[in-house]
Write a structure and sequence with these properties.
With 394 residues, the protein is mainly beta. The chain folds into two domains: 195 residues, no CATH class; 179 residues, no CATH class. Helix content is 13%, strand content 40%. The strands form five sheets. Strands 1, 2, 5, 6, 7, 8 and 9 form a seven-stranded antiparallel β-sheet that branches. Strands 10, 11, 12, 13, 14 and 15 form a six-stranded mixed β-sheet that branches. Strands 16, 17, 18 and 19 form a four-stranded antiparallel β-sheet that branches. Strand 17 and strand 18 form a beta hairpin. The longest helix has 21 residues. It is elongated, with a radius of gyration of 26 Å.
Length: 394
């Protein structure tokens, strides 16, 4: 069911559960102007998660919660803050009414959450409000908040009159989001979460990469005690991110993206080897596999199957909840070999680009993946004989 303008007045929220303010208690309220450019920077760091949620379109509950909590904080025992947290959360995921859905989908239409990233949404005012009570017994109510007011300055009738004030409390040397006042979001037919274009100043300039460009590193200790340095290198490709013109959100893109063809470089003493990461297909006519990673990560290297050769995996999203992994082994001479994994090793690993494999029998390992139809994690067994990995049939 669509909700109309979602308005929350924080006047009651600030003191909910803390008792009513004695009307006779004298207080002093001061407001000092705050630099608008600095205010926009603080606000943009909070609202960045909104852009991320919208661009992702949904995904696992754990990943979405982590992204949301980074900006708006986690769930809390304070009833007023908990109500606010849930209200903002449901703006994006109204299907998660009972808070149990494992996979989430952004509301597709009927709502728009304005941010300073959008054209026409501007920081109109910013100040630091300090409230001090005269009586010692009332000083528990003293407060200091950075208040940032954003307004819609365009002429679209659906957005006319929009305003929202964000409050930040001081925590050590930084301002931390506390609550909102005004309109959380706008609900009307014809709206969606990408209703307004993003401002050009928030777009990333094209980034020139020097090849090879390293995105993964690890170390393998061979059976003789020697160490092999391993690097996952992009040898051709592009960089783009959520603010790049033409960015298309999907389960296969990230906030930042290094997409292209890759190789494994292994170095043992003075010797260096390269292993191209290939796609499945005709061995006589191999083709490069195109991969995408958001940032540098650690390759988890260990001897999974106990044959004396260290192993590691490299994964890519196959859907919003399942990842497909390739398997590699480091040989005695320091060279890396890519295993024949058929269609891949499918597992749900919460966005990990390199995972360990747990052997559950001779030449057998087991992973689990989230099955949307069953709404549960299911195990799947793989055989691993020599350099060949296949799903085990019952």
């Amino acid at each position: 069911m669509k909700r109309a303008l979602c308005c929350i007045l924080m006047f009651a929220l600030l003191f909910s559960g803390c008792g009513a303010k004695p009307e006779e208690s004298a207080k002093t309220v001061t407001r000092e102007p705050f630099d608008l450019a600095d205010a926009e920077k603080i606000l943009s760091e909070t609202e960045e998660c909104v852009v991320g949620l919208v661009q992702a379109g949904g995904g696992s509950r754990k990943t979405s919660l982590r992204r949301f909590e980074k900006c708006y904080g986690g769930q809390t025992a304070d009833s007023a803050q908990e109500n606010l947290w849930r209200e903002i959360w449901r703006v994006f995921f109204d299907s998660d009414a009972d808070g149990t859905a494992e996979t989430l989908q952004i509301v597709s239409s009927g709502f728009f959450f304005p941010t300073v990233y959008h054209e026409g949404i501007e920081v109109a005012e910013a100040d630091v409000e300090t409230v001090s009570y005269e009586k010692p017994e009332d000083r528990w109510m003293d407060s200091e908040f950075l208040r940032i007011l954003e307004r819609y300055t365009g002429d679209d009738p659906l957005l006319e009159g929009f305003w929202r004030r964000s409050f930040y409390r001081k925590a050590q040397d930084s301002w931390v989001f506390d609550h909102l006042e005004g309109q959380i979001n706008i609900g009307a037919d014809g709206l969606n979460f990408q209703y307004l274009p993003y401002k050009e100043r928030y777009f990333s300039a094209p980034r020139e990469l020097g090849f090879p460009y390293t995105v993964g590193r690890g170390k393998a200790t061979l059976i003789d005690g020697s160490v092999v340095e391993i690097a996952l290198e992009m040898i051709d490709g592009v960089y783009y991110d959520v603010r790049s013109p033409g960015f298309v959100p999907s389960a296969f893109t990230f906030k930042t993206n290094y997409e292209g063809t890759y190789q494994i470089r292994s170095t043992k003493g003075p010797l260096t080897f390269t292993c191209p990461i290939l796609a499945d297909g005709d061995d006589a006519n191999p083709s490069w596999r195109r991969l995408n990673f958001p940032a540098e990560f650690e390759l988890l290297v260990e001897d999974f199957n106990g044959d004396g050769n260290p192993d590691f995996t490299i994964g890519q999203p196959a859907s919003s909840s399942i990842w497909s992994y390739l398997l590699f082994s480091v040989m005695e001479d320091g060279q890396v070999e890519q295993a024949d994994c058929g269609e891949g090793i499918f597992a749900s690993a919460d966005g990990a680009f390199s995972i360990p494999l747990e052997m559950t029998g001779p030449e057998e390992f087991t992973v689990s993946y989230y099955h949307n139809g069953e709404a549960a994690y299911l195990p799947v067994r793989y055989s691993w004989a020599g350099n060949v990995v296949r799903t085990k049939t019952e």
